[in-house]
Design brief:
The protein is built from seven helices and eleven strands. It has 253 residues and is α/β, with parallel strands linked by helices. It has two domains: 184 residues, Rossmann fold (3-Layer(aba) Sandwich); 58 residues, N-terminal domain of TfIIb (Single Sheet), CATH 2.20.25. Strands 3-2-1-4-5-11-10 form a seven-stranded mixed beta sheet, sandwiched between helices. α4 links the parallel β2 and β3. α1 packs across α4 and α2 packs across α3. The protein is globular and about 60 Å long.
Length: 253
């Protein structure tokens, strides 16, 4: 099933994440592969967005599949493939809660708080069961989530304006701590070839997950939780961490 949501976000996605150091993040992932994995070769990147991490891991020699439910996000990723003459990444327009692959893979990744975008009741259970189904025995699942501290202090009810050449993103937050839901009201302004500006509006929501809920859902799906880290150095999370990095191993009978 394809969704029209994230159409406005696709234009401003890279500017929203412009400070992300994908090389350092991929270094951490490879360190996880070496430390906890067993001959990691094939990787499915779920909620891949415009494919920045998918491309970074592909450059390092992994057999990559990028999965996202947004047509616009995948179109941007495919356009980049065309520009860079890359032909061997498989792109799938699918939902991370119920995707289907042609076989199992040795690792699944989900970056930039993709898991937080699962806001419905039971969504993470569905996602984790699907990931488990398509992982090799002892395969690795690496993902990150925004922490409760980030929702309360960084997101909260704050407003932001981000600008890049030809794109401006206005970002207004509404955080409901009781429900654990944050709404991001986005207005994206893009300069067209004619010199006029096009405006697109969209509301994106994220759910704040407590550590206990993540651990319980992973274990219920059949994962062994290796660790929850506060950074790329495998450090313990601190109270003011903005992101938790989770590593889990797929156990199959």
């Amino acid at each position: 099933m394809a969704y029209d949501s994230y159409s406005a976000l696709s234009s401003g996605y890279d500017i929203l994440n412009s400070e992300t150091d994908y090389e350092a993040w991929a270094d951490y992932m490879e360190a996880c592969f070496e430390k906890f994995g067993n001959n990691i070769e094939s990787v499915a990147d779920i909620g891949c967005g415009t494919g920045a991490m998918t491309f970074e891991l592909h450059r390092r020699g992994y057999d990559m599949t990028g999965i996202d439910m947004s047509i616009d996000m995948l179109t941007a990723a495919k356009d980049r493939c065309y520009d860079e003459e890359i032909e061997d990444i498989l792109w799938l327009l699918q939902d991370m809660r119920s995707f289907e692959l042609y076989g199992t893979v040795s690792a699944v990744t989900c970056c930039l708080d993709g898991i937080n975008h699962l806001t419905g009741k039971g969504d993470i259970d569905k996602c984790f069961r699907t990931v488990h189904n398509y992982l090799d025995p002892d395969g690795l699942f690496l993902f990150d989530v925004n922490t409760p501290h980030k929702f309360e202090s960084f997101y909260g009810n704050n407003d932001y304006i981000l600008e890049d050449e030809g794109v401006t993103v206005c970002w207004q937050n509404e955080y409901d701590k009781e429900k654990g839901l944050c709404s991001f009201n986005l207005s994206v302004f893009e300069e067209t070839e004619s010199g006029l500006w096009r405006r697109s509006d969209e509301t994106i929501r994220e759910r704040c997950y407590e550590k206990e809920a993540l651990l319980a859902s992973l274990e219920k799906a059949g994962f062994e939780v290796i660790g929850i880290f506060g950074g790329y150095d495998f450090s313990e999370p601190c109270e003011d961490c903005l992101r938790w990095h989770v590593v889990a191993r797929c156990k199959k009978k």
